[in-house]
Amino acid sequence: MNMNDHIDTQCLQASDAAHHLHPFADYSQKHQQISRVIVKGEDIYVWDSEGRRLLDGMAGLWCMNVGYGRKRIADAVHAQMTRLAYYNTFFHTTHPPAVELAAKLVEISPPQFNHVFFAGSGSEGNDTVVRLVRHYWAKQGHPERKIIISRHNAYHGSTMAGASLGGWPSMHQQGDLPLAGIVHIGQPSYLEGGRGKTPEQFGLEAASWLEHKILELGADKVAAFIGEPVQGAGGVIVPPPTYWPEIQRICGKYGVLLVADEVVTGFGRLGHWFGSTYFGIQPDLITFAKGVSSGYVPLGGVLVGDRIAHALMAKGGEFNHGFTYSGHPIGCVAALENIRIIEEENLVAQVRDDTGPYLKQRFEALAQHPLVGDAGAVGFLGGLNLVRHKGATVHDNVPFDRALEVGMLCRAHMFGSGVIVRTIPGDRLLISPPLTMTRAQIDEMIALITTGLDKTLAELK
Ligand code: PLP
């Protein structure tokens, strides 16, 4: 089968079903689905093998920040591949793309960051966090400070440490996770726990769960707290404004390291280079991936704050950790070109001051649809809940019976209407579109989503 020739969709689908085990796909007979074949991307659109154009409201998998079809990234990759396709960065060896990218990341990151550790993905980045945090405390003479506190419903990747830091029971059940020394507290979901409280009160309450957990475990045992500024795959859970500053205060009080997983929220998604800036916090470590290269080439890593970097350098000794593809030159040149595009097109400020507020206004107005219980957006992230009945407050909305799988039905209607969204259990629908989206394209996306909602409502009647 030559992929450049005419595309035989059925042939591809049959071969895919026969040989390809997909990530996060249900292999049971009941759910065995024929895969949709995506063959082309341009700007904010992708095309399937039947020639249907789909507006990509998920930027691939939360990653295509500059959109599809950027020839200049391809050209940079091609030039680097012919010059030096690969060399490693182990044992004090380096190459120009890794040097240049590390300096660029330091330039755009908050001031406490002057060092970068490269990995191949967000999961590898979070594995690096676990090892780095424990290594740091051992070097400080406190090897007993090992425990990392994370949150229920968080997503931090699929490696053993990533899935352990994550808070999904469905992942923990497979493979005896979490690993020892990783514990979880509740997520700051106002919808879940805020009944009868203001968002500000609830934010402080949710942050206090961290302090309770630290006191329960003993501060001398706790190494770090990790959280996504906005929980992404868990459902675009936007914490109340009081949450993160209080988390920062608590970490400071007990000397606990603060880690922000910015795999989703980094590189402009919240209208700042990093979501930590949006929430006014100063983490010690930031995990990054996805938007760093807009997914053109796999790349991830960790921004290492001065508190940790200086301590490691002062104490000396080897950090016995690294990946063959740490600082891969192809990933680095793709990231450099991607960041240049974000800068030249002013995408961060555009999301902060113009298209972000406009997306918020248009997306949140979807709450007027009879099927939508509530809708919220921040930057270029949004989430809404499909409900059977709307109540007097968001806490009184009546959900659908889970067995009806209304979210999946709605997602299918969205595809039918020409827009890709994500749905998660609980009939919650998410968006995370490319940052290049114009106001006119936001209007187009909202119109397509509305058509999908209308079709879902019609089918439910
Ligand atoms: N952290 C967060 C917040 C993520 O959303 C993801 C992936 O979706 C990861 C980590 C894992 O990244 P990767 O899939 O590149 O390993």
TrEMBL record:
Pfam families the UniProt entry points to: Aminotran_3
Domain of life (superkingdom): Bacteria
The protein's required cofactors: pyridoxal 5'-phosphate
Molecular function via GO: pyridoxal phosphate binding; transaminase activity
InterPro entries named among the record's database cross-references: Aminotrans_3, Aminotrans_3_PPA_site, PyrdxlP-dep_Trfase, PyrdxlP-dep_Trfase_major, PyrdxlP-dep_Trfase_small
Keyword flag Transmembrane: no
Assigned keywords, A-Z: Aminotransferase, Pyridoxal phosphate, Transferase
Listed GO CC annotations: cytosol
The family this protein is said to belong to: Belongs to the class-III pyridoxal-phosphate-dependent aminotransferase family.
Full protein name: Aminotransferase class III-fold pyridoxal phosphate-dependent enzyme
Higher taxonomy: Bacteria, Pseudomonadati, Pseudomonadota, Betaproteobacteria, Burkholderiales
